[in-house]
């Protein structure tokens, strides 16, 4: 065991330790090639046999106990998480804090942080990501049991894939901050007099960043928001969804430890736990000390923020209606399998899940049948169903699917291709599961399919492909879309379709089949959300996601 | 004479012609050293004897005539400009257009522009700047006679110095757009399968940019806003102040010619002329096709926009209360002269003009006397007064000064150090002029000096320097400040003061005397407006000023 370094030495060493990581991430976002510093498989071949067990043990040891976070202004302890896999309450309680105390604590902690070298802030965020990767088996259990993601998806999608989004935001923060020289010599002749000024340029953070997290995929958007605000010098208050607190509590715990380890006040990151009955988000949104808001969640509240927040930075990701247009296919089963897998992944509780599949009339019967067969192949194989579909987080999603199913009998032109049904989870017999409902619809029912239904339901719409592209891109413009999909063997059709997607701000995946999930969005390579349609105003991640989180204040004086 | 190139060749040649300019500007904003592609003196030694005369002739030929702009949806012709130098109406009328017709024309013009190579858009903006420099003697006359700036200031401050701000914004637009690779190959193994995707990333503009210009310094903020929006692919509607249309009409004329010369629809830039009785700004602000708003002008309307605009980009520069703190001086006359010149320049109708001069008690009598002497030295020398003070644009500024003067008799602790008075303009006997009112005030009268008075009035406040810094930075935080000034020979005092300015988002000039105007803000080197206080939310110019004016939309498909 080494003796503890003095803090200054430890900080310098940390900057050195993470310099390559940050520079590699900067290179990755420039080239957009595949890259990650992490392994996104939970395989024991990679991680050894002990880490998965230790992660599970850590999770289980936390059940039915107060979560240990030494937050300021604690009012009481609350907790309402129920595992979608066991149906049982996790029994974990979290400190609920006076929002004013969280604000005050952030402001008290802030001066040291704003004065810190931006390179140190970047390195500390990289260290937080590294520590979170170290506890990712615990995180995977936590995400599983609050969100319902399968174990493998919770490990990868809510672990490395999400941490990569965070490091991607760090890369842009580094680029934006390094773009500003900290000093300059200005020499010019004025009216025959040689003038020489020394100028300094300070990066000044804006204020407290509030990160409002969603319930189904909390870490994926939280990491980039957290690191973007924090690296640029702003304290952060994490506001988890009241039914999915544990992942963000783990984040707060790890990040606060890193801050403390390197001599900073841990209250630079706090957790604003609330309850469904007494939500706290709006109090924080309205507080003048909160200057940056990152929101992921429902279009309803996201839209409210978009219509009401002024004088602050607001970054949103909400939802939309993702579409597939099938014009023609080289391999019908491969295309149907790709769509079936995307519609089954996490039971379509993802912002990239397809909901509407437009199929050209000559293909629709065959494609619909193949789609059902491919979904059945997943649903009927317990190992696959477990790994792909996971569980249904909320009763509300069961109801969403049931509501759609109920509408079928009352409508002409709608019929059931595949009934939704629970699948039997071998490990968790009480798991709340539901395989996708698949409906065949004609174009007369857009009221039914053209609104987001948050749950496993897929509409197969018979429509000429050009008309389908027109409608799909109209939906993207008016309802929002994060991921759109197109299948065609006709390059002319593709060429005339792609501009419509581009104008609708719809990121498009063309003819993708095979082992990669078509709705997988890779940090460093795939831009997530265009900001051009109602699915959100921010992109993970680009320069615009970070460039305004800090400001520049200058001084100048005659050179010595 | 060469034969006209085909358009495509001309476009390629234009990109080549301006490549060095744009790259030099990118280098300048990185190093922040002094640089400009232009000469900011109107001297005939630089420009020859003909250009000044030709510019004056062009201006005079325009008087009492309709301004020739072939805009869509013309309703009628209006014009209400009166020269502050002659007191006479310019008699120029401008087409007033149906705002809906301007929007429609912009949308019709847009597809070609959004499809254009970003490098071509950059080159076209550089070409516009170059052409505007070519007509800068005409522009100088126009700015003189609508705004009241002196000839030399109108030439430099509203010409090259403003064009530099535009090219600075272009440099950031180039950086932000070049930061996005247009294509990538993504190769990764998924579940043992090698996946290779080709990805393309399109830069997609947001929508129409509205540039709302101020009356007193219209080009300086308009150029960066215009070029930032235009280069990133957005059509622009210029909305000049109804009493200062001519400069923006010249801008529209020149820029539309450039667009037409290179095969683009000139309606990518239009002019929305209105009248004081029937303002059109809000109609355009509210229009859903307008997605970017750049506003320069009054805190009243700017604040209204800041409180009400949602779902669109809003960049504002309004105003504030700029302060000088005099703690101690090496050379009292030099410091007093520096402040006197800044307070006299354009009769303090600038967003960087100082208004409140806090002087330490031991210095205040001597400094006040020196300040008055230095202002007198300018006011009493007709050549200097003409060149520095110019004219008063609006009656409202005379009234602002008269109102302050009227309050003196009714207050204790306030007395007149120097009376405001017109100076006799040798060339324009009817010029509306006013030399600065200088009042001595004690700290009990902040209600008098702590609000912006838009006109030549200077308050000399007796206050201990530490208390003065506290109050000056409080005013910056609460009322806004674009430029703050500090004089001290005590490095300890400077060291403890600068963090307060930084926290207030107040750009600070320390101990500057001599030939350079202390309120001169150099493009490429000085950041103008921090965005951290009520003086505005945007900075000229940084990455944040441009990075969100376009978005990124991607496509991906399996590699061939």
Explain the overall architecture:
The structure is a homodimer of 560-residue chains. By secondary structure, chain A is of the alpha/beta class. Chain A has 2 domains: 264 residues, Aldehyde Dehydrogenase, Chain A, domain 1 (3-Layer(aba) Sandwich), CATH 3.40.605; 188 residues, Aldehyde Dehydrogenase, Chain A, domain 2 (3-Layer(aba) Sandwich), CATH 3.40.309.10. Chain A contains 20 helices and 17 strands. Chain A has a 7-stranded mixed beta sheet with strand order 12-13-14-11-10-15-16, with helices on both faces. In chain A, helix 3 crosses helix 6. The longest helix of chain A has 25 residues. The two termini of chain A are 49 Å apart. The model of chain A has no long low-confidence stretch (mean pLDDT 96). Chains A and B meet through strand 3, strand 4, helix 12, helix 19 and strand 16 of A and strand 3, strand 4, helix 12, helix 19 and strand 16 of B.
Summarize the helices and strands and which ones pair or pack:
The structure is a homodimer of 560-residue chains.
Chain A lengths: L6 H25 L12 H4 L2 H13 L11 E5 L15 E4 L1 H17 L2 H17 L1 H12 L3 H6 L3 H19 L4 E8 L2 E13 L2 E5 L5 H14 L4 E4 L6 H16 L7 E3 L9 H6 L3 E7 L2 H10 L4 E5 L5 E4 L5 H13 L11 E4 L4 H16 L2 H8 L5 H14 L5 E5 L18 E6 L3 H4 L7 E6 L2 H15 L4 E4 L3 H13 L4 E3 L32 H4 L3 E9 L2
Parallel strand pairs in A: 5-6, 5-8, 6-7, 8-9, 10-11, 10-15, 11-14, 13-14, 15-16
Antiparallel strand pairs in A: 1-2, 3-4, 4-17, 12-13
């Amino acid at each position: 065991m080494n003796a503890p370094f003095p803090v200054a030495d430890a900080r310098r060493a940390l900057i050195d330790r993470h310099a390559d990581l940050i520079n590699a991430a900067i290179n990755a976002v420039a080239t957009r090639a595949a890259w990650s510093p992490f392994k996104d498989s939970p395989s024991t071949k990679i991680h050894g046999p002990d880490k998965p067990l230790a992660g599970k043990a850590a999770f289980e040891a936390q059940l039915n106990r107060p979560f240990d976070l030494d937050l300021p202004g604690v009012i009481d302890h609350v907790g309402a998480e129920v595992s979608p896999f066991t149906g049982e309450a996790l029994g974990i309680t979290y400190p609920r804090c006076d929002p004013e105390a969280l604000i005050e604590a952030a402001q008290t902690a802030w001066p040291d942080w704003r004065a810190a070298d931006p390179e140190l802030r970047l390195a500390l965020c990289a260290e937080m990501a590294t520590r979170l990767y170290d506890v990712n088996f615990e995180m995977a259990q936590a995400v599983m049991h609050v969100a319902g993601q399968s174990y493998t998806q919770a490990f990868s999608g809510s672990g490395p894939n999400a941490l990569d989004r965070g490091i991607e935001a760090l890369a842009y923060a580094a680029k934006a901050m390094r773009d500003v020289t900290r000093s300059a010599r200005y020499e010019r002749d004025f009216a025959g007099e040689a003038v020489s000024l020394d100028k300094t340029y300070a990066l000044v953070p804006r204020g407290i960043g509030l990160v409002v997290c969603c319930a189904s995929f909390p870490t994926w958007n939280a990491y980039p928001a957290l690191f973007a605000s924090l690296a640029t010098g702003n304290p952060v208050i994490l506001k988890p969804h009241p039914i999915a607190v544990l992942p963000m509590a783990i984040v707060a715990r790890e990040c606060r430890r890193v801050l403390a380890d390197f001599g900073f006040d841990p209250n630079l990151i706090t957790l604003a736990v609330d309850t469904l009955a007494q939500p706290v988000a709006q109090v924080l949104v309205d507080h003048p000390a909160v200057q940056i808001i990152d929101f992921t969640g429902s279009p309803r509240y996201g839209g409210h923020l978009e219509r009401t927040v002024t004088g602050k930075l607001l970054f949103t990701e909400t939802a939309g209606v993702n579409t597939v247009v099938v014009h023609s296919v080289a391999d019908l089963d491969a295309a149907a399998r790709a769509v079936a897998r995307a519609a089954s992944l996490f039971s379509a509780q993802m912002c990239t899940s397809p909901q509407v599949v437009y199929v050209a009339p000559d293909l629709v019967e065959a494609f619909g049948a193949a789609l059902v067969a491919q979904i059945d192949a997943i649903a009927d194989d317990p190992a696959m169903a477990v790994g792909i579909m996971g569980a249904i987080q909320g009763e509300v999603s069961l109801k969403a699917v049931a509501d759609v199913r109920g509408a079928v009998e009352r409508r002409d032109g709608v019929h059931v291709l595949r009934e939704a049904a629970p699948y039997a989870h071998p490990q968790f017999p009480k798991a709340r599961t539901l395989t996708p409902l698949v409906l065949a619809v004609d174009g007369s029912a857009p009221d039914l399919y053209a609104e987001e239904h948050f749950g496993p339901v897929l509409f197969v719409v018979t429509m000429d492909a050009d008309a389908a592209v027109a409608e799909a891109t109209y939906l993207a413009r008016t309802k929002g879309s994060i991921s759109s999909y197109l299948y065609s063997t006709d390059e002319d059709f593709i060429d005339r379709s792609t501009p419509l997607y581009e104008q609708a701000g719809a990121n498009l995946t063309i003819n993708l089949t095979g082992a990669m999930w078509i709705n997988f969005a890779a940090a460093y390579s795939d831009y997530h959300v265009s900001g051009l349609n109602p699915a959100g105003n921010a992109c993970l991640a680009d320069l615009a996601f970070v460039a305004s989180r800090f400001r520049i204040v200058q001084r100048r004086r005659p050179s010595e």
